[in-house]
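In practice, a research group might receive sequence data for several interacting partners and want a quick structural hypothesis before committing to experiments. The following worked case mirrors that situation: the sequences arrive first, and a predicted assembly follows.
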Amino acid sequence: MAGLGPNEALIGAPGSRARLSTPALVLDLDRFEANLAAMAAWASDAGVRLRPHAKMHKTPRIAQAQVAAGAVGICCATVGEAEVMVAAGIADVLITSPAVAPGKPTRVAALNRRAKQLAVVADHPDNVAALAAANASGDRPLTVYLEVDVGSARTGVTGAAAGVAVVEAIRSSDSLRFGGVQAYAGYLQHMPDYDARWAELERAMAPLREVLAALAEIGVRPEVVTGGGSGSHRMDPEMGLLNELQVGSYCVMDVDYDRVDFVGGDGAPPYLPALFVQATAINVNHDDTAIVDAGLKVFATDGPLPRFAGGAPVGATFRFKGDEHGAVVYGDANERLALGDTVLIQAPHCDPTINLHDVLHCLRGDRLVDIWPIAARGASA
Amino acid sequence: MAGLGPNEALIGAPGSRARLSTPALVLDLDRFEANLAAMAAWASDAGVRLRPHAKMHKTPRIAQAQVAAGAVGICCATVGEAEVMVAAGIADVLITSPAVAPGKPTRVAALNRRAKQLAVVADHPDNVAALAAANASGDRPLTVYLEVDVGSARTGVTGAAAGVAVVEAIRSSDSLRFGGVQAYAGYLQHMPDYDARWAELERAMAPLREVLAALAEIGVRPEVVTGGGSGSHRMDPEMGLLNELQVGSYCVMDVDYDRVDFVGGDGAPPYLPALFVQATAINVNHDDTAIVDAGLKVFATDGPLPRFAGGAPVGATFRFKGDEHGAVVYGDANERLALGDTVLIQAPHCDPTINLHDVLHCLRGDRLVDIWPIAARGASA
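A structural hypothesis for the assembly, expressed as tokens:
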């Protein structure tokens, strides 16, 4: 897509929200900013560093807003994302997955020359050797974190001995610097129940405790222990292991995270849904449904279904009708949509939903006030 | 993503396939060209026009190859896709979904000035009126097709009277021209069994027969009746209703379409898988799995699971491990992957998989020979 898409000319126009060419990914700026402020205030009280994860939003403007709200820097999941964020001026970037594929160590070393602060995780001595070789001619060391697998069975070392071996490999290289330890229990972040999530987190973090103990035995006490996510962030400080949190979804929320009890009790949810797809009723020829112009090319399909957040009759539910279409299933609803009516649909799983779109349409009430490029969209390599 | 991505410098280099930064969406050009040739030869024998659907590939270079192989033009699902394809020089474009959302009729009318040949479908008199108004100051009529709903309960008119009303609205406008009728039974294209699909197609097409009969009664015999897809294309000419086919997936195939019996019998499948994601083993710390750098941000998740097509141990299966990661689950396999090994994974559902990527890495054997921008990726509005 060239530039900011078909709605660029509407920026600033009163009532422009109703005139958006759809489907359009929209961000409620008031709610987004309230979510940033709520997280920043909580982190300040809790005394933890925030390093929000940009894999969720892939949007330099959001990363900049997070840093402005007090984050120490951001995380990226891929080298490609990090290249985009560094180019956008983000000063401190941690790449949270090992850079193993062809060309990746070289690209990381090249980025280390351009970035103000860059770090990458590693979980295997061979990868540490590849990073060291790639950065051998660099003018400053590349910072490398040990990643520990805490229950996801994904990346990270398994076992304290393997962790010590990776740290020793990092510390024995002149071209590398040991930055700390990462442990991310991604699989439990979306567990709705607070107590069940807490119990699972206790279990998950046991390997991290073991690795930290083994490192202490060789005199290594990591300055930074980073990890966690929106689901566990209020537990992690109490657990006493992490001092830097990689929260992501809190700033826009989604249908999946709306089911998560963050605070353990009856308190109001601290973060509010701010991310929606605006769609238009393009077919009203059926008695039981209307068809909107939003299908599985604008919504993630790995989580729960998208959910109506405005415009649709009360009681109506969303159903996918292929790549470009969705159905407003009326069910017991009494109202009906007219041709051209607009509906607002909450994103089901925010990360892969945002990754389908090129721009975020930023709204204040009924006005389109800005369009932000999702500049790292698709930067998967 | 800027330009052609991190692998641009590898174009033309011997053995470059093994050096791709991953995950990388790859197109086997030999197979792709064989698929184009097989479809073109079949259509020529069958005496039907081909208008392949570009919603599948969103790639001007593929559209150009299809036209070069004899297609009369292409289809687009969205106005945004059509804008990209017209800008890329495609001479004849049909937009296959009604242009209802705000700004869409105006954009279609503007595109009608730039395109050599453009058409759009409509299924409601109010939308016809909006198109007529938008094109009122145009220097030539906008071609509009009636869309008939043939069982998808999505877009299209339901009932012969509604169809006649739309056609009369089109024909009564000075700024519009009636182009023909579209009927697309998308829901049955992926039915694996030939006979079951045939029976379903017979049922689905009944409303089209009724509309064509009602139009004949008022003296209207559409020049073009367009529709169908890869699943039904060998049946549609026998059915005697369509004279132009909107095939899409045939040119790259996917796991889902590999289950479809196109020819009704024991013959070899006429189209071969040509679309894969190349990924790298980035973690081999587990006994039962390796982790690759390909997750649900590079594969569609609405269909079957991705399937290994090369590099993985025989018997291993793919499992999603989140947004950026997948697991090579060894199961009973004897072999193991080493850190940095490359695997090739067949796309599960081609349309939404391609829509996740910015470029296609075109391979001849082990050489990267070109990179094609997926220029209409994300052009959902």
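Before designing any experiment, note the following. Chain B touches chain A through 75 residues (CB under 8 Å). Chain B has a mean pLDDT of 97.
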